[in-house]
Amino acid sequence: MKSNYNLLIGALKTFNDFTGNNVKKDFIYIYDAFGFSELLSKYPIQEAAGNGSEIEKVLNLLSWCSENVLHNGETKDVEFIPKTSLDILNYSYKKGREYGVYCRLQAIVFTECCLALGIKSRILHCLPFSPYDFDTHVVSIVYINSLKKWIMLDAGNNRYFMDEKNMILSPMEIRERLGNDDYIKCNVDDEAYKYYMAKNLFYFKSLQNNTFGSDLQAEQETIYCIPKGFNVLEREIAYCKYAIKNCPDFLVADWEKALEEYSKRTSFINLDADVFFA
């Protein structure tokens, strides 16, 4: 276990340069989409958030989402659920693990709840180095104005990382501390979670448009944040081939489509970390 962990944090340390791109691309946040009004009227999101500071509201929402939309990352087919917070809550809210969903759907609920309250947030897909690792993870990042930075919050596990002063960390701060084997702690004593995220913080991607039903937007771009020297296209193609061989039957067609799309691509929108997390 320790030797595997050292390999993971060693990869973070070795591939730690996220600079060198001249590309500029703005992320878009839309807080007044029609679906948010129905979301707020149907579910007690404002009540759950409370009346405290921005960060207090966000942490209250994190707990509320984690407690009421449980995780079920096994082979259960929930792809029939439209990827909006409202549809996911309609399916899963307070119904236990039998109606649980996987991490991306939990992140959608939490992220859209934040956006509905006017809090800048987006989904962050965290990916490992190895193309033969079928287990990636999806979390949320929220911009906290008082801190002047993004923090990473995991609605699937009700987890986040902090430094010695109990300040919640950004994705790049977490990645740097893990890579340097520096002090880092979770809000819950959970060494397995630290190992899990050391594996899944090698590179990142997010959708450009962030609003109600971001995954369903017709004109949507995926924006990457990739360490210098890493061939992400080669990795994505190998990953799709691995997924086709190993995923449940109901997901094969999706991965075959993804493989076809990646095989036609020659480039990605790749932003420096300071632009991606601006």
Proportion in helices:
40-55%
Strand content: 5-15%
Strand order of the largest sheet: 4-3-2-7-9-10
Strand tally is 10
The description of the largest β-sheet is: 6 strands, mixed
**H/I helix tally:** 11
Structural class designation: alpha+beta
pLDDT < 50 runs, ≥5 residues: none
Globally, the shape reads: globular
Q: Report how far apart the termini are.
A: 35 Å
Whole-angstrom Rg? 18 Å
Overall mean confidence score, pLDDT: 95
Describe the structure.
The protein is an alpha+beta fold. It contains 11 helices and 10 strands. The strands form 3 sheets. A 6-stranded mixed β-sheet has the order 4-3-2-7-9-10. The chain has a two-stranded parallel sheet with strand order 1-8. Strand 3 (137-144) and strand 4 form a beta hairpin. The relative contact order is 0.17.
Observed structural traits:
11 helices, 10 strands, single chain, alpha+beta
Outline:
With 278 residues, the chain is an alpha+beta fold. The protein has helices at 2-14, 34-42, 45-49, 54-68, 85-92, 103-116, 171-179, 191-200, 232-246, 252-264, 273-276, and strands at residues 28-29, 121-127, 137-144, 149-153, 161-162, 185-186, 203-207, 209-210, 222-225, 269-270.
Strands, helices and their partners?
Layout: H1 2-14, E1 28-29, H2 34-42, H3 45-49, H4 54-68, H5 85-92, H6 103-116, E2 121-127, E3 137-144, E4 149-153, E5 161-162, H7 171-179, E6 185-186, H8 191-200, E7 203-207, E8 209-210, E9 222-225, H9 232-246, H10 252-264, E10 269-270, H11 273-276
Parallel strand pairs: 1-8, 9-10
Antiparallel strand pairs: 2-3, 2-7, 3-4, 5-6, 7-9
Helix pairs in contact: 1-7, 2-6, 4-6, 5-6, 9-10
